[in-house]
């Protein structure tokens, strides 16, 4: 066949060849491939199977896989004289009968060279590092960026899958390994995983790993994977903050209204199914109007102190939420009205140490008023119980009592 652009093919810096698909014969080789063998005084291979050092490898089968998109490049061990080189062969169809193959030698891949290109800028700006994993020999090569990300020297970076896994947080390791195993098993092109990895100072950071099949063997099995990891700790911290905001009140740290409704509904369902008592308490932190004229910061400090004071008094199964600026809602599962009154009375009798804290923060247990409602007498839904408890607390404020019971 006539080779398109013969001069360009001949002077390609990358070793390249043209092969006949059906026979596997190498019908042309460029100067770089010829020199690869001449430099060690060896004869160049003349067939595909001898080139890749695999008598069972059929070029026609591999081309079919390339056409289907199952294979992009082949990992091979080239025998060059008395040396065996780890290399990748990329295949491009020239016509129905011939392919162009070009060889990249990755046995001693120097990531520092790659990072001295635009890739270095991309990696640096995204706090990312590049790595390559040769599966058969279980050899991992890392870039200097990974060493920097892990806070260690290049020699201390992981050099095997086991070494890498030793750094992954034990809670994240099973999912991370499962993702990679599925990638290899199903011969996928890409995968992505997020996990925590230990740095040189024994602190963990969150990273996102993106891996890509770099080369495959003649059967289409994944042979080498190349990928990046990048530090996503700031992003994870933001996500956690947003989740927390969606569940907890920022000032007091208690559940907010939306989260409380979910928990309250669940407990009400249990009380209904198990025929157990349940009491709801509406707590007004400013029944005497002592907070209304305070500056905002001083008022917030008093609300925070009062809320935390009450939180420390309740039991583990009780649920406390902030539902308005100076209003709390307390659900007491498996608690009768009589037992609820005993618990509420503990709020109104602080110890000397608790009293000092309250007074220092301009909070007062004497400023509290609590309205109580029970299920099912005062309501069969959360909304009905809350309305009854609210009516009770309003009655208590008007009459000047600390504990008021729904009628």
Task: Describe the structure in brief.
With about 400 residues, the chain is α+β, with helices and mostly antiparallel strands. The protein has helices at about 5-10, 30-40, 50, 60-70, 110-115, 120-125, 145-150, 160-165, 175-185, 235-245, 255-275, 295-315, 335-345, 350-360, 380-400, and strands at about 15-20, 25-30, 75-80, 85-95, 100-105, 130-135, 140, 190-200, 205-215, 220-230, 280-285, 320-325, 325-335, 370-375, 405. The chain contains 15 helices and 15 strands.
Could you please describe the fold and organization of this structure?
Residues 191-244 form the PAC domain. Residues 115-187 form the PAS domain. It comes from Marinomonas communis. Residues 276-407 form the GGDEF domain. Pfam families: GGDEF, PAS_3. This protein has 15 helices and 15 strands. By secondary structure, the protein is an alpha+beta fold. The protein has three domains: 6-105, 2-Layer Sandwich (Beta-Lactamase); 111-237, Beta-Lactamase; 248-405, Reverse transcriptase/Diguanylate cyclase domain (Alpha-Beta Plaits, 2-Layer Sandwich), CATH 3.30.70.270. The strands form three sheets. The protein has a five-stranded antiparallel β-sheet. Strands 7-6-10-9-8 form a five-stranded antiparallel β-sheet, sandwiched between helices. A five-stranded mixed β-sheet has the order 12-13-11-14-15, with helices on both faces. A hairpin with a 5-residue loop joins strand 9 (204-216) and strand 10 (222-231). Residues 112-127 have low confidence and may be disordered.
